[in-house]
Amino acid sequence: MGFSLELTEDQAHLREWVHGFAEDVVRPAAAEWDEREETPWPVIREAAKIGLYGFEALATWFADPVGLSLPIATEELFWGDAGIALALMGTGLAAAGIFAAGEPEQLAEWVPECFGTPDEPKLAAFCASEPQAGSDVAGYRTRAVHDEATGVWVITGQKAWATNGGIANVHVVTAVVDPELGARGQAVFVVPPGTAGLSSPGKIRKHGMRASHTADVFLDGVRVPGRCLLGGKDRLDARLARAREGRASGGQAAMATFESTRPVVGAMAVGVARAAYEYALAYAKERSAFGRKIIENQSIAFDLANVRTELDAARLLVWRAAWMGRNNVPFTAGEGSMSKLKAGEVAVWATERAIHVLGGAGYTRDHPVERMHRDAKIFTIFEGTSEIQRLVVARAISGMHIR
Known about the structure:
alpha+beta, 12 helices
């Protein structure tokens, strides 16, 4: 479908609807849940009640033929507050893992289980990173072994930094099935609710995104039936056979999910950056020093002009990558990684500049830019550090295996 910067009527309505929820429900609760460092269940329930959290909403956004509905909604939620928004959006990463690797019947079975119902919403967790392997997906050690007699898969290992880990209804777990194949010898499994052997020691206390639950997940001989292998055994065997023969194997398990979600992560970062920019601009137009509004000083005005320019550039990269992904246009130059790289670094820089505009006041918790700056830092780390994004782009544009 053709690309246009003019939003459709549905997209404009979506932006207005989500923005209203972010302004009226998310923002007033932001400081409280940041201080409490707890999952904001009241906000999740409110979002589920109005249809903003759930399988139907995600499916509708994914169905947008232009591909912009999901980044539009994401930006508005993260404009409200990043920690609460990630508590709402974290389940989407697990759902994306199921979409990326699963068969239609598996999508139908497990994606609704990720979200629960409007009356009883649930969470889901995508468990990929490990204590010794974050960006190094080839270094994963969690192992899944197939019991030929029963058809059951037995999973053992430890996952790290999992959003919603341990409190999720459904855990989507990447595991090694053939260690000799490295990153190509991995598969993705669904661990159903209540499965024995899965445990978590509790929430990790973080620098930012404090309203979003992050935890390590331990899998001690977790047994899941064959239907929990996303894509199925026949498809896995065929992929592994191609990899053993040195042929293209159809992609690596965790990376398939990250490639599809990086523009969405970029939209998250754009939302945080925009919130900080708007707050700093309003402050600069109200605050007086030396007999005039501080916005009348070029140093402040130019700072904000630069932020706005970079913010719009980041959004355009995100929208381009989202459109390409939805319309099956190949990322020939790492466009998905470009969008996440640019938006993440803009978010860190823009929130830092917002603090600078506010001066000493910006460094206090009396103003939200302090929290926004803490929240922004993760965008240069999770789902691939900035260095990893540069590596992806460099390999794409050079055709060389750059290390």
